[in-house]
């Protein structure tokens, strides 16, 4: 079925609003703020609606969950900052590649490796593998372009490290 953009947004809302509200509430513990987060998702989705071809599919569901979790985390962190809690960012070296990524043939092993990645890294790699550019990822995650590229590099580096450990039969670092 072909949809115009307004119909797509409406259908996405019908399909995923309850799911997104659950994810937002899990993080925010406040129904009103969770509803605001769901609304914000659709403001972001409007910017990328042309990239969404299938509405009721795992790829779109994953996209909606990634966006709501990111927005909810941002709201949560903003509320904590407003409460004068100090946050610090750990600097990690950049530059890596995914050359060894495709050497792993067994899906179950790959799933185990991906489960060891921090959620933010797994999400950004999922968006990249779904064909989103760093610019689109920045829009989806509401971060600037340079931060999107940096996170992507960090995610690739972390993934490469886990793959190297896997291939050498070594132990995974506990996170």
From TrEMBL:
Please report a single Pfam family linked to this protein. Sigma70_r4_2
What are its GO biological-process terms? DNA-templated transcription initiation
Name the keywords, alphabetized.
Answer: Sigma factor, Transcription, Transcription regulation
Asked if the Swiss-Prot or TrEMBL record annotates the protein with the keyword Transcription, the reply is yes
Keyword Transcription regulation in annotation: yes
InterPro entries from the entry?
A: RNA_pol_sigma-70-like, RNA_pol_sigma-70_dom, RNA_pol_sigma70_r4_t2, RNA_pol_sigma_r2, RNA_pol_sigma_r3/r4-like, WH-like_DNA-bd_sf
Protein origin, superkingdom: Bacteria
Q: Which GO terms describe its molecular function?
A: DNA binding; sigma factor activity
Report the coiled-coil segments.
Answer: none
Which protein family is named in the record? Answer: Belongs to the sigma-70 factor family. ECF subfamily.
Q: What is the official name of this protein in its record? A: Sigma-70 family RNA polymerase sigma factor
